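Dear colleague,

Following up on Tuesday's group meeting, I ran the structure prediction for the two-component complex that the binding team flagged. I've pasted the input sequences exactly as they went in, so you can double-check that nothing got truncated or mislabelled along the way. The structure tokens for the whole assembly follow below. Feel free to forward this to whoever is handling the docking comparison.

Inputs:
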Amino acid sequence: GNSVTQMEGPVTLSEEAFLTINCTYTATGYPSLFWYVQYPGEGLQLLLKATKADDKGSNKGFEATYRKETTSFHLEKGSVQVSDSAVYFCALLRGAGSYQLTFGKGTKLSVIP
Amino acid sequence: DGGITQSPKYLFRKEGQNVTLSCEQNLNHDAMYWYRQDPGQGLRLIYYSQIVNDFQKGDIAEGYSVSREKKESFPLTVTSAQKNPTAFYLCASSEPGQGSYNEQFFGPGTRLTVL
């Protein structure tokens, strides 16, 4: 079956530090990959996405590249801010026409001034 | 503004009572979803509906029920059969057929606490 594995948190960084949150997946076929962000007490917001191998998703300074050879979709940001403190979820959608997202367990990021 | 609303934000119920969580969307999306989130866990799919008057069980449907009588509404009932109902519940919607994926848009969630 499909599964998503994220690095366990919590992750605590100082402002302006470099961020990497690892995400690997197991899926048949060619899934689409997503990063969602959840700020405290809120629902999830789509941060970025990639729909095929070697695609790079980017948004708000965050980037992730769909690596089929390593089945990975690691999230990176060059310089984090206090406002980036949130829980980040990696997710996959199995293929065109599929309705079910499979989520990782989430990684909590805290950025301190 | 288009979006998804869930009400209430916080809900308290006594053990053994059924409770219904509201989810409304004005995005004109065909598909709607209910997820459950527990601390330290990812989201788990409870039910989803691809179209009005149709819905399917997700991974953890036991103890829950849904209806989809209108396109914009997808209420979730947490029944007394649900063994551990205290959780954060998230509703989402999507419009399938947009390219090779269907982005899901999430509501703000309802935190249910059973006393």
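The mean pLDDT of chain A is 92.

Cheers,
M.
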